[in-house]
Protein 1
Amino acid sequence: MTLSQITFAAFCMFGIATATSPAQESQSRKLESQKPEAQASDPSILFAGIGVTDISPPLAFPMAGYYHERLSDGTADPLKAKAIVFRQGKKFAAIVVCDLIGISTDLSHEIRKSAFQKTGIPMDNIVVAATHTHTAPDYMRELWWNLGGQRQDPARAKYVRRLIDGPVEAIVAAVSDLQPSSLASGSATQKTPVAFNRRFVMRDGTVKTWQKFSNPNVVRTAGPIDPEIGLLAIRDWKTKKTRGIISNFALHLDTVGGTKWSADYPHFISETIKKAVGTDTVSVFATGCCGDINHSDPDNAARNKADFIGNSIGDSIVGELKDLTTLKQTDLVVKSMIVKLPLREVTTEDVEKAIEVITAANNKEKVDFFEHVTAHIKLTLDRLRNRKPIAKANELLRSGISRKLAGVGEELPVQITAITLGQDVAIVCLPGEVFVELGLAIKRASPFKTTIVIELSNAGETAYIPNRIAYAGGGYEVTNSTLKPGGGEILVESALTLLQQAVAARGSK
């Protein structure tokens, strides 16, 4: 095949401009060489590919999840990036789920840009999501330095590049793995209690996080849970062997602690599925809307551990696999939009106070927890809203600093994406830590029978995304949000608009 033929093949396959890099030409050649005969005769057949890479950091890299620095001293289980790529004719969609605490806009942009350059999949059709494990790297300041060309510790700089390249490699591997596939969808109900709403209405009318019913001032929990585990199985077209399982459940990933890298309870979900289905079956766990959900039972002092939680959810998944419904229609539609969410105000006085608190905390002085959280949010808002920020947040914060979003003004632009497969399956991808009430609202209004709602996709600068009513009661999650009330409802309305557009796109064929 000549160079011009390769370029033309890439144009026909991806529907993009004909100017291609050597890497794109090589990838196009590989895709063409692996192209099954069925594709030529029936372009409606859905292809699916799966790719997995290791993104575990080196030892002594900072760990995420809390408001003090801790360095890793080992690995409990490896951190991974797991990619699923769907292809139908010239249409592609890619989701890569990473064992990280969150996805900054800077990281998402770098991964999607590189993945587009290597595969031709449009950036708007690529979603980068995090599971939200708290035993993952605290990478955001290191990434900020790296993208700005600042001098770094060589080992840390090398890992930051790995954090970009690893998910891209997973996407490339998934593209190379594309093969005719059948899909089966449905849901399991998690009957063993492992998830609990962590917000509580108090007798004074406020809402507090992390309480127990033994507290006489607790009236009730402030919200629901979502017991549904959304499921999508990817099976071989001919043999019907299950190659991969996407699962989705609303439960915070903060069940391990310590100073060893761990994917948290999804690791045990994967192990349970492998034992039951096959060691080569890839489990892709995508976190549901769980901004106000954790594993602490308010009726008991003891907390469930990661292995119990993961094995229990895994058993629920395995028990439902035989009852999943095979999709008769698998036409692929991808819709996305940029949504602008209103940011909270921040004053000079707010920033000056925040500098004092953060400086004291960094000097190991005792600081009130909620003052510390507030200070982080105020300095983040200073960077987001002001073209000339008051504070040098990059010297004070390890997270919340962004190059692409620096000085965006009063509104935060975030991308949301809906990937639909036939008339029965929708995958909705949202930024931030989204309250369960908002995820439930999308599911209940969705025109698709199985709707998987994934949080922490493509952007994390929102921090928490509460529903509007939560702001009246307050609590940790409200304190730790960059958004004004109503931002969550804007996401719900926008997601439903995308789903309606997807239905219309199917109907127009």
Protein 2
Amino acid sequence: MNIKTLKEELSAIIGILSGYEKTIDSQITEVHPDYRSSARNLLRYLILRSFDLRKYHSSLSDIGVSSLRTTEAYVLDNLQNVVKNLHLIDGTVYNPPVDIQDITSYTESKKIIRKNANKLFNGKRRIHFTEIMVTLPNEAAEDKEMIREMVEKGMEIARINLSHGNLEIWEKMITFINEVATETGQTVKIYMDLSGPKIRTAAIEIPGKKGKITNKIPIRKGEHIILTSRDTLGKKSDFGEGSEQITKAEVGVLLNEIITDAQIGDFILFDDGMIKAKVIDKNEQELELVIIDAYKNKLGARKGINLPDTKLNLPALTERDIELLPFVCKHADIVGYSFVRTGEDVKKLYAEIEKLGADELGVVFKIENKEAFENLPEILLNGMKRNKIGVMIARGDLAVELGFERISEVQNQILWLCEAAHVPVIWATQVLDNLARTGIPTRAEISDAAQAAQAECVMLNKGPHIASAIEILKDILIRMEGHGFKKKNELRALNVAENFVTRLDTLKPVL
């Protein structure tokens, strides 16, 4: 592609961006002043990523002009500088059509990201920028030295999962965390996860071998089972000669909305995606499913259910979450918002926090399902009405809902959008998991931990060898930070950007 064509096509994109400025202004009026410029940059980035930019990179590099691959954090300044340099090479004059006003350089954007991360996490200077968060096991409530060892090895944020334990356990953990922080002189923030709705199978109690009660039902590929809102303790399938299924297995659910909202043709996944089924029939109380794939031969009680094709009419903020919020606001520095799916969900949590006057509470939006990923731009824009926010990439649930083959692509897209919004990211799920559980890391998880250095925080889960995992992760983060900040990408058009811009177009003023 020659210089003239590059100038014309990139200038045309700038012109399109400039045409959205009034619409962008209208979309950021309620954003917190600290995030106003970032919100503007995010919207510009979404518009830019509705184009396929891959065709420009090689031509720009061939003539020694910086490509668009690092454009996330300072969209318009980067794009206009590229066109300006093309004009200088061509000996022509460039008059930028847009007064940038906001973020005017890569250096400035980097400072904003670091400032926002320090505001949410810890503001002290450290030898590595990326924070280390660790999930505390319930045993930590009885073992102060366990917490001390984690802090000494490098834990900077202690995570308390409110899905497990009770107030007594959590209060003991909090006491120990604060004591250890004082005794070691370290700053240790407390992060608490709200549980959200429990989308799981119900209790199962059926006779097993020798009269023992079992909480699992045998299943196999091709079998039909019933998922029901009726009170049931489960039932096994019966098979006749030739493995013909005579009666169908039956499993209850904890939330009746699963039965109401799922439609024929929807896929339903159980137990972290180990069992995949499809709805083939339904009535008011039941879904009939056919097992498509089964990597386990039994379906257990209280196992997670994912419905990637179903829009569930469930509150992201449950009554139990609202009951616990005063405790969270009193003791936590950061709250994790599970099952957030839309901008409206963000507004509901903010309304509850406002009632409690918790102005300094940080909020992290856990992106853990397909709907949340698709609505991430709206979640971010509504989230930026407060100035201490972050995003957690809950890679386990995302991989189940979107498919394991897509998780690498999706986690990168979340990183890009959050970089454009200057919102810090927590990289979560199974980081150094084998090391924490067995004491021996795999090569794959060491590589994954190295990639996690792109985020502003990395979360480790509990395990008997967690202290070793913290120590190794800290070493990896120190080493990787010296190699770069974020990374370059090809910039094909993103569906999440195209869909958002389509909605944004309906808000453009008629000229």
